[in-house]
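Worked example 2:
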Amino acid sequence: MVSEFELPEDIIDRKVRNMKMISPSNREVDIHLENRNEYIGMCRREVLDSFLRNRAASLGATLINGLVQNIDTGVNRQGPYVLNYSDYSSGSLTGELKSLEVDLIIGADGANSRVAKAMDAGDYNMAIAFQERIRLPQEEMSYYEDLAEMYVGSDVSPDFYAWVFPKYDHVAVGTGTMQKNQSLIKGLQKAIRTRASKRLLLGEVIKVEAHPIPEHPRPRRVVGRMALVGDAAGYVTKSSGEGIYFAAKSGRMCAEQVVESSVQGQRIPSEADLKKYLKKWDKTYGPTYKVLEILQNIFYSNDPAREAFVEMCSDMDVQRLTFDSYLYKRVVAMNPWQQLKLTFRTLASILRGQALAPSGYEPINSVVRSEQEMNHLLEQSLQERASLNKSGQRSESEATAQEKARVLSRT
């Protein structure tokens, strides 16, 4: 996305070239990108979105600071289309009700898309992603300079994975699960904090975020002269849960089809014209989505399978195939030897994984500080904070006990 969409270097917080895959039994496998020109770009959405929005304005787009309330779609949803919205451009807290008639709508308004609702696009299964942004002391943060961590295990997610991703001056620590398990999300988040607690020493939560993530495309993505792209259309990959590149790419492909079909503005594209974008999209990315769905169903199904998945990631061929698929958004073809090797390795890993399935979990040890140093720092922090309590409000033992619980919960 960085090269294709000409993103500037200064909006990229971290260039990740190293990944740790951590199994249910806390087995760690290191994955490296050897080519210095390759990396996974870590961005903050508020920075990336602001850049894209401002660039669109500089190229001629008219920005409206508003919230769509409803959409009139005409007879049989064939138009004319009227957007009824609250305009907040004046700075008013309530907004001014306005309407805007348009020839065509591209719904790029996320998983809870109002455009999708207006066009009766149908529902899809969703996952829930929950994460905390945690600011770390410099020494701990330096460990995550160009490193991201992925944790798998039924404790952190029954059907997905958990992560520690480095950002500008903090790490994003989170997990995801299918919507049917939404009631478990806080417990799963607590579990990933526990698994990584020794690496998040004295971390301070600065922001909490939760987002719905589509699990498959909507039944209808074009109706009349309305089209869906990105999360609104359901373009999020299985296994990785990535959607940012696919949102940008689908938006561009849809817009290019509009430009082509309009014949330089001489005609309004029809429903049939817009569906040409869907055909191009499905042909280009359909195989990628299907392969990743199969992998998720196999390797995220239980802890033995997750153990096998992490073990397989130690193989260089698997690493190369995984990174190529992730970085370049395509299913990478394997030669017959690779296919045979991968098949046998998968079977062997699953068999060994059955024996490795753990009964319990332990926090991952810090690679920055020793156990003795960690205990000393925790104790020192507890004493400093307890001493700040006003005399007479709480006893020292009460203050220490409550502060210890707070620090442990935070880290």
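The radius of gyration is 24 Å. The longest strand covers residues 204-214.
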